[in-house]
User: Fold Multidrug effflux MFS transporter from Chitinophaga hostae.
Amino acid sequence: MTNEHSRSKYISLILILGTLTALGPFSIDMYLPGFPAIGKDLGVDPSRVALSLSSFFIGISAGQLLYGPLLDRFGRKKPLYIGLFLYVISSIGCIYASSLNGLIALRFIQAIGSCAAAVASVAMVRDLFPVNENAKVFALLMLVVGTSPMIAPTVGSYVTSAFSWHAVFLILGIMGAMILLATIFWLPESYKPDTSMSLKPRPIINNFLQVVSEPQFYTYCFAGAISFSGLFAYVSASPQVFMDIFKLSDKAYGWVFAFLSIGLIGSSQVNSLMLKRFKSEQIVPVALTAQTLTGAVFVLCAWNNWLSLAGTITLLFIFLCCLGFINPNTAALSLAPFTKNAGSASSLMGAVQMGIGSLASTVVSLYNTHTATPMAITMCGSSLLALLILVICGRNIKTAGTAGASAPAMAH
Assistant:
């Protein structure tokens, strides 16, 4: 009976932590099929609606740095309550948004709220489970994160078709409320508040400066983040490319988005097998070079109007497959030099990734030519810049990290 109770408790914890982890990806991807409808209702070009996606990325970037110290200072649940409450209120606000600027502001607040769920779930895995089970639990949560981009746009497309884009935010608000209730009643507090933890800006900033001064961190963190920003450009521009240029229905777009997500998820799993024979330091430059060449072909084809629907999907699939090899290895190599400041390094890496990603998303949204060219140029440029950073800054790394044999199979 005791074993059954323990197993039941284990499953309930995994389910709650899994829903906390999935909240962010669902919030990003579920409303993408509604871009044309949102643009029509708010009186703006659908490509401009992507600015609300950029503001969401900025909110997540800021939240990464905000919640780390708060979760240590006040325990895990209180900041989580505040974040989820903000999420629910802002989701309801999005339903009644009457202007693009209003939607952009509400999405920023929604991101700040959802970020609490993402950061707290990672911290609570370390708190609640034995060290030897952490990898297993993280693998389960990564599976949730990986499948969310496949499910969310497809669900969003059917909800938008059957009801309206407003219903998507209603569903997200209900999800947030249910997760908040589950957190209150079934998720235990896993960390005693640390009153010695300083929330003053200077010690926090000094801690981050120590992290960013490490050559291995800034080389792989920025190379990985800039490369990953190509994904943000794709996510922001894909509704216009597929639904406006290629005239796909919102349902068809949802299925295409789901298919392309398989490239990122599948290659990240293949990466785990590759690490049995190769080091992360060997995989990253090869994958980055392949990604840059794919981006160059994409630019050439987009510029000359040679792209068909099948060609666009093929190039995007290859590009995302490259990311599946780059992202987990750059993440592992970035964090490898740290023991004491691993938490700060992790939150800073997440903030850099989301910050640069939001910039790429904004660039694609502002330079709308009703072609795939802005997306292709941004994706190619991000890969080329990342490769240059790896080559130039990599010379400053004195000793290679040992993370190559244990890089996690991370997805988006």
Observations:
- The chain is about 80% helix and 0% strand.
- Confidence is low (pLDDT under 50) at residues 400-412.
